[in-house]
């Protein structure tokens, strides 16, 4: 279904409305299900995924070439060359440089989180910001401001089809951001009495209810865990027991 939506959005964006309409009818994605506003969010997804496929193909070819080179080196190895190699652990396995180095934060980076479906990664920093990157292209997509102190934890989750980004901070708050709406801040959760150090969405599992997918747990230096309903912003329970 995601592929169909991406193709329809691509056709519409490239002035091929008849083709887009024909595909809509064939796969049963009418405007009541896949409206124009939602379509806009999928316009560039197909191109990104195609670029990823080409990049992966090149990577496979590079790995095959490297593998052939290593096999040739192994076939032609002598006892003395093997002994020399074994003395240097860094040469045991081939290492390629990192694909990208992402730089923009002005303070220490405390946390990262990968989007479960798209090629996005969020990072949180002592500079009080969250940055959204495209990890396939190595590009900064957006800087999110809202916290007033260091961002300590991040997590993507929530109901299926309605992924949210949760962040927590030394400013004692947890914030929920909507990736489908330019990471708009949709809710701020307050209740902890000290720095909030971690957040995690509670997975509902394959047979879980819709309501359980709305649950978020947070941990704080106030020695408590709190369970939140992200749909309402209410704290459902505070768990106490830690002494430090």
From TrEMBL:
Pfam families listed in its UniProt record: LisH_PAC1, WD40
Instruction: Give start and end of each PAC1-like LisH-like dimerisation domain.
Output: 1-32
Concerning InterPro entries, the annotation shows: LIS1_N, LisH, PAC1-like_LisH-like_dom, WD40/YVTN_repeat-like_dom_sf, WD40_PAC1, WD40_repeat_CS, WD40_repeat_dom_sf, WD40_rpt
GO biological-process terms attached to the record: cell division; centrosome separation; spindle assembly
Q: Which residues form the signal peptide?
A: none
Gene3D superfamilies cross-referenced by the UniProt entry: 1.20.960.30, YVTN repeat-like/Quinoprotein amine dehydrogenase
In this chain, composition skew of type Polar residues spans 69-90
* Keyword check for Metal-binding: no
Name the UniProt key words of this record, in alphabetical order.
Cell cycle, Cell division, Coiled coil, Cytoplasm, Cytoskeleton, Microtubule, Mitosis, Repeat, Transport, WD repeat
> Which domain of life does this protein belong to?
Eukaryota
Q: Name one GO cellular component term.
A: dynein complex
State the residue spans of region: Disordered.
69-98
Spans of repeat WD: 102-143, 144-178, 189-238
Q: Which SMART domains match?
A: WD40
Question: PANTHER family attached here?
Answer: WD REPEAT DOMAIN 5B (PTHR22847:SF637), WD40 REPEAT PROTEIN (PTHR22847)
Q: What is this protein called?
A: PAC1-like LisH-like dimerisation domain-containing protein
């Amino acid at each position: 279904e995601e592929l169909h939506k991406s193709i329809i959005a691509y056709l519409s964006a490239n002035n091929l409305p008849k083709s887009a309409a024909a595909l809509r009818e064939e796969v049963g994605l009418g405007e009541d299900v896949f409206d124009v506003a939602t379509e806009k969010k999928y316009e560039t997804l197909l191109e990104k995924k195609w670029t990823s496929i080409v990049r992966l193909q090149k990577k496979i070819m590079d790995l095959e070439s490297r593998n052939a080179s290593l096999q040739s080196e192994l076939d032609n190895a002598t006892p003395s060359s093997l002994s020399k190699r074994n003395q240097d652990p860094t040469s045991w396995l081939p290492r390629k440089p990192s694909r990208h180095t992402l730089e923009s934060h002005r303070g220490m980076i405390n946390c990262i989180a990968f989007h479960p479906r798209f090629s996005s990664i969020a990072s949180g920093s002592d500079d009080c910001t969250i940055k959204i990157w495209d990890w396939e292209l190595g590009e900064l997509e957006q800087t999110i401001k809202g916290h007033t102190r260091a961002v300590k934890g991040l997590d993507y989750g929530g109901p299926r089809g309605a992924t949210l980004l949760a962040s927590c901070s030394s400013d004692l708050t947890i914030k929920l951001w909507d990736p489908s709406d330019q990471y708009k801040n949709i809710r701020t959760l307050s209740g902890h009495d000290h720095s909030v150090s971690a957040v995690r969405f509670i997975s509902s599992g394959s047979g879980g209810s819709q309501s359980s997918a709305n649950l978020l747990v947070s941990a704080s230096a106030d020695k408590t865990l709190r369970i939140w309903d992200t749909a309402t912003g209410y704290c459902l329970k505070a768990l106490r027991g830690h002494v430090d």
